[in-house]
Description:
The chain is α+β, with helices and mostly antiparallel strands. It is built from 6 helices and 16 strands. The strands form 3 sheets. Strands 1, 2, 3, 4, 5, 6 and 7 form a 7-stranded mixed sheet that branches. The protein starts with 6 loop residues before the first strand and ends in a 13-residue tail after the last helix. Homodimer.
Amino acid sequence: MTRPKRWTTAVLDVQAPGGWAVVQSDQGFLKDSNGVLFPREWLKRQDLPLMHEHGIGHFDGEPVYVQTLRDSQEVGPALDLEGSQWQTLRQFMLADDADVFQMLGYAAQISTWAREHRFCGSCGQPAQQVPGERAMYCPHCNLRAYPRISPSMIVLITRGDEVLLARSPRFVSGVYSTLAGFAEPGESAEDCVRREVMEEVQVTVKNIQYMGSQCWPFPHSMMLGFHAEYDRGDIVPQADEIEDAQWFSIHDLPPLPASRSIARYLIDLYLARRSGSVEPVLPGQADG
């Protein structure tokens, strides 16, 4: 039986009273012993250095808003409420509650979009929220800006009982992962797979198969996940992008990405299929 989703997106009227809010600053999201949801009317009395507020959806049926604070460089130290602390989105990703992470991931994307579109990208005039629609509107030149989603591919390259994994200098020490990259204008997802693999490790692939997708809110990616079989070529890591890349036996793998990531899902799925064990479920998909 599929359980009801605790988190659903919606466009809510910021003029409406009540509800709950999550608070984001350049230090992350505010959290206290009760979690990340704060009474919205109580927050309004805290004299926050508020940049903007957007209604983003419902959690357990209750309306939720995201309140984004001005950067600490503008206003000094960020809000410091007794008993509360700031926690990064990545820390929430590693925590146990996938529903909370999904809500905060969406909040982060809407907050980033709203911050980047406070002014019209065409004429530079201040933009306004469009009531009932997720859009920013310029009354001077009629330009509308909608939240941006950047499609990207992520692929596990396989060769029988071996998988090709790589690490970027930006990764946690020792961790190896799948290859990934953003799609270019005019190319298909499969073309993106072929190009990125060639650019990053100088090998060609075949039998590209789509495995699933994941919204990746760092800050606004849509990750399209694939398996692809090795075709030919020797590994040559891309300078300045790939610190190391090599073939690993599925029986002797290095430290891997976090379990909630689509990169880990692609690896675990291949391992399950090679061993005939139960296949994992991609986080954020249907739950039993």
